[in-house]
Each structure stands twice: as structure tokens, then as C-alpha cells.
Amino acid sequence: MCGQQMKSTIADIPRHSKTPVPILCYHSIDTTGSLLSTSPRVFSNHMLHLKRHGYTTLTFGDLVDRLSAKTLMPPKLAVITFDDGYRNNREIALPILKRYGFTATFFVVTDAVGKRASWIERDFSTVLGWAREGGHTGRLSENHRKIFKSRNAYLASLDKTALRKELEKLVLVGHFPLMSFSELSILSSHGFEIGAHSHTHPFLAELTENDVYKEARRSKEMLQNRLRPPVTSFCYPSGNYSTNVAHIVATLGYSGACTTERSSVSPSNHNIYALPRLLMHDSYDAHKFRLCLSRWFPLYVFAQIIWKRVKQ
Fold first, then answer.
1. Phi-psi map region of 114: left, alpha, beta (phi>0 left; psi -120 to 50 alpha)
2. What's the CA gap between 63 and 232, in Å, rounded?
3. Residue 276 to residue 262: CA distance in whole angstroms
4. What pLDDT, on the 0 to 100 scale, is given for residue 149?
5. pLDDT of residue 4
6. Which domains does the chain have, with CATH numbers?
7. Helices then strands (H, E): number in the chain?
8. What is the residue-wise DSSP string for 169-227?
9. What is the SS3 string spanning 100-161?
10. Residue 237 per-residue DSSP state
């Protein structure tokens, strides 16, 4: 290729082709104020901001397809995801999404469809009991401490009173109803993507490879059998995964998977089976939401990490 042809080719590449893509991660849309909750007002404000600033949306699966094909991205693109499948996603979030013409991906725990998010109390019951009794060291073994810290560093950093309050709000969310297969079918028929979020919401990196395989396979098969469209997107429960877990997910035919690592997706430098997401909740007011969509957000996250270390 001659120099003039090369210059022409480079000039034809849109400058926005390397713009980071934020994947927003919501859970329950409610007013409890838990770490997994975003109020209807805050969620509506987020969507209004995206609309006013010219954002378009893709499902997670469509984003993965574009990344795999190295397709150029529009300058303002966002992906909206919901974890666990709370019924309030359909009752509250769906009308707001439709109002602004946005699409989304709903990641579902298949064993809990039409039930409750029982894994919240299952995973935190021991620590909650310990916190309720004043945090006496005899109630919590060193092994429990290590597991709790590895699973949720933020909660583990709280004092006993704050920890008890946060866990009690989370347990309350765990009693909210989850969508049924008929409700998920309606979402799917309207073009929303239904992705797999495992079968029982375990910490996958703590399981044997065989159990990881069963969790990811059963979730995929159940959704495909009940809803028909192929299930190609996977979400690691609690963002917990390892290289081996990601490999198993890939071998089962998933096109991509997402974590809860706080960053936007770089179209030019990414791992298709470990795409980061931005965990949303009520602390994301208008200012912080604008910040998380900007190129400066990684610097903000880094500064937070340094500040926490300094305070320690």
C-alpha cells in the first residue's frame, strides 16, 4: 500500500472507534438503600441523562458480537444490565426503558426464577448473626473472616454497626420476588436479552471445575428450553470468577461474560470473558453518574483506592 492510500485509510477510521463503553450494572429497583438497590427516582434520572446526552444502547450480547468482530462503536454507547431478575425490574425499570427507547440485558439465576434471592441470606447469615450480637470475636472463625473479606471487601471494611445495617438491608432485598419464566418470556419477546447468571448463584471460583460446569450449563439449558432464543451471555455471580471459570464458560458456548470490576470496556483492549461493569446504586447522583461515563472515571477509582490505603 502506498503512503497516500495508507493516509486515506487511516483518515477513514472514525476517531470514536476507541471510545470506552460503560456497562451499567443494576440489581433491584427499590427504596431500601441497600448496596444492590437503586431507587426508581435515581434510575429514571440515569436513563434521562443517557437520553439527553445522545447515548444509544445495545444488549450485552450485541456488544460482545461487535467487540469480537472489531466493529466500530458509535461515540456514545452504553449497555444496561440487571442482575438476579427482580420483578421490580419489569414493573418499574421496564416502563422507563421503553419511554427512552433503550434496550437491556437481564441476567437470571435459573433455580430462583419465580422465587426469592435466597442466596443473600445463605451467604451472609453467619456474618449477620455475628454483627447482630455485637461482633464478638468468638462468634466468627478466622476462616469465615477470610472468606467474607475475599467475597466483599467493602462490607468487610465496615464497623460492626454499619455492617449490621447494610446486611439487614441486603437480607430485605433477598425477600423481594423474582420474575417468573412467563415474565421473562415477555421481556424476550420485546427484544430484551435474557442472559445466564448461574443456576444457584454460588461463588464460582470456590467450586470444583465440575460444579462450575454444571452451574453454567444448567442455567443456559433451562433458559433456552423455556424461552427459546439462544443464551450467549453469562454474568459471574458476585463478579466472582477465575481463569478456569472463564475457560469453562467459553467452552459451553457463551460468547462473552461480565464481572463487577469497576471500569468501562476498552474496544481496543479487553477480555471478552471478563468485561468490566459499573455497579449502580443510589450513591450515583447526577455528578457521580456523569463521572462514571467519562474517560476520567478510572482515575477517580484509582484515587479512591489510594485514599483508603492512606486512611488505614
1. left
2. 12
3. 6
4. 79
5. 41
6. 16-118+177-307 (3.20.20.370), 119-173 (no CATH)
7. 14, 10
8. HHHHHTTSBBPPHHHHHHHHHTT-EEEE--SS---GGGS-HHHHHHHHHHHHHHHHHHH
9. HCCCCEEEECHHHCCCECCHHHHHHHHHHHHHHCCCCHHHCCHHHHHHHHHHCHHHHCCCHH
10. G
CA geometry: angle at 191 spanning 222 and 17, to 5°?
110
Residue pair 198/83 in contact by the 8 Å Cβ criterion = no
Rounded to 10 deg, the angle between the 142-151 and 119-132 helix axes is: 130
DSSP state for residue 21 in the 8-state scheme: B
**C-alpha distance from residue 22 to each of 12, 70, 181, 280 (Å):** 25, 17, 29, 11
CA trace torsion 222, 224, 226, 227 (10° rounding): 140
Helix pair 209-227, 181-189: axis angle to 10 deg: 70
| Model pLDDT, residue 130 | 80
DSSP 30: S
Determine the pLDDT at residue 299: 72
CA distance 135 to 126: 11
Residue 59 backbone phi and psi in degrees, to 5 = -75, 165
Q: From CA 76, how far away is CA 54, in angstroms rounded?
A: 7
| pLDDT at residue 140 in the model | 67
**Scanning the structure block, which residue is given the C-alpha cell 434520572?**
45
| Grid cell listed for 209 | 471445575
| SS3 category, 228 | coil
Grid cell at residue 298: 478510572
Ordered DSSP codes for 239-270? G---HHHHHHHHHTT-SEEE---SSPBPTTS-
Q: For the chain, which residues score pLDDT lower than 50?
A: 1-16, 137
- What does the alpha-carbon distance between residue 200 and residue 118 come to, in Å, rounded to a whole number? 9
d(CA 237, CA 258): 10
